Amino acid sequence: MDFGFIFSSALGELFSPTTAAYALAALGLAVHFGYSGLLNFGQAGFMAVGAYGFAISTLSFDAPFFLALIISVLCSVLFAFILGIPTLRLRADYLAIVTIAAAEIVRYVVTTNQLTSVTGSANGLAAFENTFYAMNPFPEGSYMGMNNRDFFIRVVAWALVIVCCLLVWLLMRSPWGRVLKGIREDENAVRSLGKNVYAYKMQALIIGGVLGALAGMIFTLPRGAVQPSNYGTELTFFLWTCLLLGGMATVLGPVIGAMIFWVVLSLTQSLLYGLIESGVITWLTTVQAGQLRYILVGIALMLLMIFRPQGVFGNKKELAFA
Amino acid sequence: MSETNEQNIDYMTDSRPIAVGENTPGCKKRDPIVVAEDVTRSFGGINAVDVEYLEIPRHKITALIGPNGAGKTTLFNLLTGFDTPNTGKWQFEGNSLAGVSSYKVARMGMVRTFQLTKVMGKLTVMENMRLGAADQPGERLSKALFKGMWGGREKEITAQAHVLLEKFKLDAKKDDYAASLSGGQRKLLEMARSLMVKPKLVMLDEPMAGVNPALTQSLLDHIKNLKAEGMTVLFVEHDMNMVRHIADWVVVMAEGKVVAEGPPGEVMKNPAVIDAYLGAHHDVDLGDAEGIKVLEAELEADEESVVGTEDAGILSEIVETKKEDGQ
């Protein structure tokens, strides 16, 4: 077994664009659930809206990069409105049901055969990333072992993560963030103090949704393809795992959670594969090992919930009264 | 009534009559702040609230009493927009509140607390207080990012919160999570928080429930002082001592209707009220040892008391069996 390779590939996951996308989407969930108490189980839907919004406007309408970006963000805002208008007046659990259904609806709509010319159906869309890489300021060459394209997407992805974290942090320390946290605790009490709870919840839903849409774009750009199967419900649950790992009502928690999630996945996979190939483990095939690592992530999450329920960054005191 | 005439009046000692004319249920007030007319609310055939006419006097402390299920809290919910009546009109300072949502009612200056105390557990006591303040520009999303736009107001709010927390003896707790407070302290925090809004009318739903008796007196003083600051208070309470001590006016509800109104001394002698709620010997304080003796003495003298008559039930049976044993 080549431990050097195992660790370097695990470290590579730390800053991969996929990790950045997970971090952004989980940050959106932190805004939704950690700060506002909105139980969003459809973050994959927001990511899909972001990714498809970008890909379709680029491919079908030849939109330049920034126009496609704006269209994609506007689509996610619209999606948030559609979800929020009927459900935000109801109790939190209804939003959970509606979001999980809405995310599936998005996935089934883009899979429909009738829309193949626009969405590419189950095969998805490809070759929409050129407008992005055309802006690459880095000349060809090797950057820390990566080519200039890989390096560019990493720089953009993590810069976006840093900017979004900063914005969320600024928002949450403000009186606006305080009202959100109040709504999380008891929305009727906040209402009785003269705050328009509905408007605040809608703003939070939109902000978290836009973060999800940005994550969707970061997720698809390096792949150069967007496929409906990538945006299933399991993606939402991975995002929740990241959020719980890091700590719910924190800014850095989702980012660190996403990093832990991917490093652990990568480590367990390479270790298991190495052990199988070297003949130490004979009762597993590599396909089974691929499944086993998700089981291990699940066990890790359970242990975390039992022994450190507030997550890595969460405040223990907040949980003492949960 | 013009504002200029009102200016020189000390609301603490103002003894002008509250009602215009007789103190009957639904009577007109000299200066009402809230007027409700034909307000009804039914839950599946049961009329929880059926108020024909009610005015709440301005700059006074009004107590709303009545047995459990009389519709007091429902009336609170209806007046503050947390629930919608089936019929009726109701207004606050002349502005109709029909169809006005609860947060707008609060902004107009009519702030309530809840019977089941609502504090934001995972916010500190100070943050709970700050949340109550009105006119914080930083609560708008467009200004939240820039501390320069709300930092100044935040300092004012914090100073205001400090004064209130000191009054309510919560200043030592200001950095603790509200969830760590006791039930009584939460009641205090909720009341203090509602005052952060600087309301014109404070509506307290059972402010004394669960509050340490040692704190009761100071809490009563706080409520009285609200009047000095020009506020109007409406509260629901079961503690008759409190009602008698601080209320200027008492409204009695039973089965959703207003059955009596008047100054506390007068209302508590009203036979309808005694029937509905107080019981014949309501003025005896059973809390101290003397009270029980007084009650026994009163019961012996009371013609309506069953003690010593055929209707005494279990009491007479015990007497009978003793007689039989003796034979």
Describe what this molecule looks like in 3D.
The complex is a heterodimer of chains A (322) and B (327). Chain A is an all-alpha fold and 322 residues long. Helices cover 73% and strands 1% of the residues of chain A. Chain A has a two-stranded antiparallel ribbon with strand order 1-2. The model of chain A has no long low-confidence stretch (mean pLDDT 91). Chain B is α/β, with parallel strands linked by helices and 327 residues long. Chain B contains 13 helices and ten strands. The A-B interface holds A 167, 170-171, 174-179, 181-182, 184-186, 188-197, 203, 249, 317-318, 320-321 and B 80, 82, 101-104, 106-107, 111-114, 118-123, 127-128, 130-132, 134, 136, 138-141, 144-145, 147, 150, 154, 177, 179-180, 190, 193-194, 196-197.
Q: Structural class, from secondary structure content of chain B? A: alpha/beta
Distance from first to last alpha carbon of chain B: 78 Å
How would you state the average pLDDT of chain B, rounded?
A: 82
Largest sheet of chain B: 6 strands, mixed
The greatest inter-chain interface is formed by: A-B, 30 and 42 residues
Mean pLDDT of chain A: 91
Multimeric status of the protein: heterodimer
Number of strands of chain B: 10
Order of helices and strands of chain A: HHHHHHEHHHHHEHHHH
**Stretches with pLDDT under 50, minimum 5 residues of chain A:** none
Radius of gyration of chain A: 20 Å
Widest beta sheet: strand line-up of chain B: 6-7-8-3-9-10
Question: Uncertain regions of chain B: pLDDT < 50 for 5+ in a row?
Answer: none
Please state how the strands of the largest beta sheet of chain A are arranged side by side: 1-2
Order of helices and strands of chain B: HEEEHEEHEHHHHEHEHEEHHHH
> From the helix content, strand content and strand pairing of chain A, which structural class follows?
mainly alpha
In helices, the fraction of residues of chain A equals over 70%
